[in-house]
Amino acid sequence: MRSAELDRRKVVRALLERRGALLVVAGLGSPAWDCTAAGDHPLTFPLWGVMGSACMIGLGLALAQPKRRVLVVTGDGEMLMGLGSLATIGVQRPANLAVVVLDNERYGETGMQKTHTGYGVDLAALARACGFAETHMVRKSAEIVAMRSGVYGGRGPHFYQVKVKPETLPLALPPRDGMYLKHRFREALLGKVGAQ
Amino acid sequence: MPAKTSRARAVAAVWPDAIHRALKSHGVRQVSYVPDAGHKRLIELCHADKGMKVVPLTTEEEGIGLAAGAWLGGERAALLMQSSGVGNCVNALTLATNCAFPLLVLVTMRGEWGEFNPWQIPMGQAASDALRLMGVRTMRLERAEEAGATVAAAAKLAFEGYGAVAVLISQAMIGVKSFGDKP
After folding, report:
1. Alpha carbon A180 to chain centroid distance?
2. Which of A32, A65, A175, B65 could cross-link to A26 by cystine, CB 3.0-4.6 Å?
């Protein structure tokens, strides 16, 4: 296997800077910390559990808000636990949804055990087979600009498997009160009255 | 059982229509499902409804995430499944109960009334307790003529009470599945 060059925090910062009206769902563990390191935001819904659910939350949100762009940022382990959701998204084909998997080929929170992608499982190929409009394997920083324009525009659903270095970084923890996270997201998106 | 009157037969045929109307009147816009024979007509009604986005799932727990995402985006969702799917949802239900996401689940029961397939019995018997253990309020639907009112009450509890609610639809009401006519 080729060794990865990309720094996950730099990738996520590049995706979330000047984020405009973007709605974000962050999968549990390092992807949620990466999104928080880029700046905690009311329109980011970070997960602390329910492994395997990130893409489906993104789908429900994308269907409810077809005029907004929705980004799911998650990890390879989290994505592997919800592979069926790729097929479910492939049936709906929401044009406004992008999934970015930060693939370090490890379960980073539990001792850096190898995931299936470390044994060669190709998530981007799975997403392609499920009917995503665009699927890419991203290995170089030069490819981040194109990924960013796919997240913010173009006809989705888009899927990016981003090979990142397997490194343990300082924790950047989002709020973990689920009711608070839900309320602040809805209030920011729907307004005080709409959120009631 | 006494022979059904023609009115009872008519009610038995259209209870899914009453559920569909209850979902409509409570503003449900996303309906996800793993199919069950007991939900056949309701699934068809939802697919035919231009006001509903219908999402077939590969496994029932996907519907818990979908409903949470829908609510974040300002829409109401309902999830249809068979009782065997309840077990697939257990950890995902954390999302609904921990964050107080409204969740409306309609479960058609197997493994409880004249079940012929022993593989359906353990999960069917445990479904109600499994839901309750995870913090989901459960309601029983035993009579076809109460389908609309029960689902409407469950929808109110879910969307106005911000709760996770499952309606367990009795196997006796749906009709017992069998393969052929063994004695």
Report:
1. 21
2. A32
CB–CB contact B69 A25 (8 Å): yes
Q: Which of B29, B59, B72 sits opposite A61 (nearest CB)?
A: B72
Asked whether the beta carbons of residue A64 and residue B94 sit closer than 8 angstroms, the reply is no
**B-chain residues near A23 (CB < 8 A):** 72-73
Buried/exposed code over A48-62 (b: 16+ C-beta within 10 A; e: otherwise) = bebbbbbbbbbbbbb
- 0.90 surpassed by complex ipTM: yes
Q: How far is B60 from chain A (nearest CA, A)?
A: 10
B99 contact residues in A (CB cutoff 8 A)? 178-179, 181-182
Residue length of chain A: 196
pLDDT tens for B111-121 read 999 899 999 99
Q: Give B168 to chain A, closest Cα distance, Å.
A: 24
Cα–Cα distance for residue pair B165/B157, rounded to 1 Å = 7
d(CA B21, CA B16): 9
In Å, the largest CA–CA distance within chain A is 52
Distance from CA of B176 to the nearest CA of A (A): 30
Chain A touched by B25 (CB under 8 Å): no
Start-to-end CA span in chain A (Å):
51
Q: Which residue, among A63, A71, A66, A67, has the nearest Cα to A43 in the 3D structure?
A: A71
The answer to whether the beta carbons of residues B59 and A84 sit under 8 Å apart is yes
* Model pTM score: 0.96
| HEC assignment per residue over A92-122 | HCCCCEEEEEEECCEECCCCCEECHHHHCCC
pLDDT in the model for residue B13: 77
